[in-house]
Amino acid sequence: MGDYVALLLKMVSVETKETQTKAEPYLQVSGVDMDGALVNYLQLWRFEDGDIKAGCKYLIRGLRVSFEQYWDDQQGQYVSNAQGPKTFECSYRTAVEDVTQVGMIGNLF
Asked: I need a surface site. Which of 12, 47, 56, 74 has the fewest CB within 10 A?
């Protein structure tokens, strides 16, 4: 928890999203890692349409491991679910590098 990690993913889907106030765009991506495990609904803030493409391979650095959040009606906000699954959180440290053309990486998938 709280550690920063890097993921190597082949993108399966890339959707352009924005906050409810439409003030901040982000990408919601899903991809497959080198072991064939699906990484679902990773939200990459400050990324826009065209920054990441489905079918390409990316090295994503600076993702923070955290607990998934859920909406708490009593508090009126999102809160961490310490009993639930872990997820990856995008931060100002997150960098995405297209490595589709790197032959050695292509052999891993």
From this structure: 74
